[in-house]
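Before the break, one more example. Copy the sequence into your notebook; we will annotate it together after we see the structure.
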Amino acid sequence: MTAPLTADAREYGLAGDGSADDGPALQNLVDALGDATAADGRPRTVRVPAGRYLIRDRPVLWRSGVSLVGAGRAATCFVLANPGAPTRPVPLAWFTTAQHGAGPDRHIADVTFAHFEIDGSRVETEEYDVLAKGLGLQYVLRGRFSDLWIHDTAATGFGCDFLQDTVVEGVLAERCGRQDPGEKMGGAGLGIGVGGWGPVERLTVTDCTARGNGTNGIFLELQQEDWVPPRGIRITACHTEDNRYGISDWGAEGLLVTGCSMLGNHVAGFDVSAQGTTSVGGRGGIVTGCVIDGNAGDGIALGNTPGPYAFRGNRVSNNGRYGYWEHNLAGGDQEPAVDVVLESNDVHDNALDGIRVDAPLHEPAIFGNRVRNNGRRAAPAAEGGGTGVHCGPLSLTDENADWLPGGHRGKELTVDTRDARDGRDTPGPSAEAAPAGVTVLVVDNTATRLDLVPVRPGAVTAWPGATPAPGTAYRLPDAPVPRAGLTAAAAVTHPYVHGNRVRDDGRPRTQNHAVWLAPEAVWTGGRVSGNDFSGNASAATRFDSAPSGGRWRDNSG
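Here is what the structure looks like once it is written out:
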């Protein structure tokens, strides 16, 4: 066939009627254009008019120099399905190291994927398969992925690795990782493997949205333990919501995250840890100008990193546990993190401590922050049932309650779905009754209503079975104490803590102390000066372990 620079997909056999299998015709067209590009060095483009294009049972093996451009999100839609191959993942386009020998010297170059939708809802593998993605390309040079809507894939939606001189922009990934229970590899909205090109990978991820995905909204993952964590990666102006983790750094070096929002994620808004395949955390990153708010767990969770890492000018608020949590997971790097910087952040109204250190820090700098009104999980234990109690898909309301607003944030709510009158299980509106003793997580509360975390990312209900019947008995645990602005429960050596405002001016005051050195803390040397520690509920400081050396001076309160 003659290979034009731009080919209309309909003219080369693609039907776009939602029922005919367009995979073979697309593969033939990609091969022909790829051969032509290899012969004359001139990249080609497949233009795909509006329609629903079924890719059935076999992914399209992509070729260098071939771009795929649709007529717009929801106009051009590629529907992935595998009814005849239940063991085979079916991404729209793939080219990988394991299957096709991809590498730095055998890569995909000069490609654009733009202006279309990928619907992965009809792919169902017998066992979870990390390759059941929307897009699954490795070793891409000079790529551009723009204005894509990828949703309901069995594994990661945008699952492309080793992207050099590449831009990923305007990608919307929703409800991807559908078959991932939350503990498997992959299962993200945008999951990008790094390290394959060496110490520098020039990649920008910008203006992307990841919502309701099984694991991460956006994550970067070093793919081999002996590779150098790469520099040069930027994530800007992105939004992550209702994922297990919002944005995760599992092995980059010097990652820049700017102007992003991480809201309502289930475990943490921003995460650095050893969750990835190589158990290597990121290091050298800078997170600035972000809103990290209303996550069910922690706002920022940092661990398994040698450091440094810097957080500047962020709002970290209304999270269900800690605003910032320093921790180490088993299996990853356990050495002290060096040169962690928290500067000019607004850390407020988190359920427990504003800043919590449960892993060793060496020479951290904590300065110029406003750490205020934390410890919001201050409401006492509560229980109820009977008249006035009713549940919605994501709520429990007790019209007779008078709870402290936000006071149950992050607590586990236990409901007894047995009917109180006769002890029998009382089914809700669906056929399957919720089991007795169901425990769900509270994300926030008013005086009479508890707002609940969905049972998994992307779900429309918090209940594992049916919505509990009216009058269901419930109970909430007591508030933990103490709750502080800054808590150390590990070794902290030579810290610089200066010019922070660590106080509580809320009504009521719930942040018991500005600084608490827990019994496990070993606070050695450093300088704590020029801070405002006044106005906390109990006292400015609480020392269950005494600091050793250093200077504590000129602090008010």
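Residues 420-435 have pLDDT under 50 and may be disordered. Residues 23-40 form the longest helix (18 residues). Try to locate both features in your own notes.
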